Amino acid sequence: MNLLCNPTLTYVPTPLIQNPSKRTSKIHSCQLISTTHKTRRRCDLYDLHKEVVPYAEAWSWQKAIVTERRALSDRNEDFSDSLIILQHHPVYTMGTGSCDNYLNFDVSNAPFDLYRTERGGEVTYHGPGQLVMYPIINLRYYKMDLHWYLRSLEEVVIRAISSTFSIEASRVEGLTGVWVGDAKLAAIGIKVSKWIAYHGLALNVTTDLTPFDQIVPCGIRDRQVGSIKGLLNDNRHRVEDYDLNDDQDLMHTACKSLVKEFCDVFQIDFCQKSLQRSATQNSVGLAS
Fold first, then answer.
1. Nearest to 90 by CA among 56, 126, 115
2. Beta bridge partners of 132
3. For residue range 162-213, what is the model confidence (pLDDT) as tens digits?
4. Which residue in the list 5, 30, 43, 218 is annotated as catalytic?
5. I want to staple 78 with a disulfide (CB 3.0 to 4.6 A). Which of 42, 72, 228, 248 is the partner?
6. Helix (H, G, I), strand (E, B), or coil: what is residue 72?
7. What is the mean pLDDT of residues 223-245?
8. In this structure, how many other beta carbons lie within 10 angstroms of the beta carbon of residue 31?
9. What is d(CA 100, CA 104) in angstroms, rounded to the nearest whole number?
10. H helix or E strand, kind and range, residue 70
11. How far, in Å, CA of 151 to CA of 145, rounded?
12. Does 99 participate in catalysis according to the annotation?
């Protein structure tokens, strides 16, 4: 099977298999999230967590930002990082070395769009109800250690769901991600180019988990996936403060907590930004 991705940074990548039933999304920015700490490294926040964004568009945004950051870094002018947070239309993505044996469908008749990307890791699913965080971070200003970075992303999720939902999550030795028992709540896959990291993490909040049945998530056959809503519906994790019928409230609450913990773990200050799309080109403009 020959899986291709478009390496050109200024155009939306072409999916291996494209489902034509969905395509458009609008872009907006949310309230400014500010901190009151002493001066720390700045992180531009693109908060689209209420939006469902096609995967190819978000992928293109990331690569555009990475290209800009690399140029700034070469001139010693890279003064800020970036964080995009959003939801995706249903899509399967594969890491650069992913094996097609982990697909439980014929690639020529995939249920949703299927992309091979440059991130690490095996196949996973993204869809509505899942918060996806794409940090674009220059690790030269933190720690030039990929294991440290992966553990830090895990720490963001572990802190967020513990402090907000009283769900005690953990790591599993030898695996990447965040777990509650045998259920994986958050998947992580990154790419690093000249110490600038991108791609990121996906946390199942109110996600319909059925599409995971069509793959072997992250190539792990003996474990399952879970969601925050599913755990809250379990009496062992029930939190009376949340209306389990209000998915938007759960998503907003989880997003707010993730952003806060990301700020604390990486010791950064957020600066609200917005994404502006050209009506005639498949490119993205960055604006304050």
1. 126
2. 86, 202
3. 999 999 999 999 999 999 999 999 999 999 999 999 999 999 999 999 999 9
4. 218
5. 72
6. helix
7. 80
8. 7
9. 9
10. helix 55-74
11. 10
12. no
Nearest Cα neighbor of 218 from 278, 175, 256, 247 is 175
Interatomic CA distance for residues 286 and 67, integer angstroms: 13
Alpha-carbon 62 to chain mean position: 11
The structure tokens listed for 70 are: 């690399």
Q: In what order do the strands lie in the sheet with 91-94?
A: 113-116, 91-94, 124-126
User: Which pair of tokens denotes residue 125?
Assistant: 């699913």
C-alpha distance across the termini of the chain, in Å: 43
Given a cut of 80, is residue 126 above it in pLDDT?
yes
Closest Cα to residue 146, out of 177, 79, 191, 116? 191
Strand partners, 103: 215
CA distance 223 to 97: 21
Residue type, 204: N
Cross-strand bridge partners of residue 125: 92
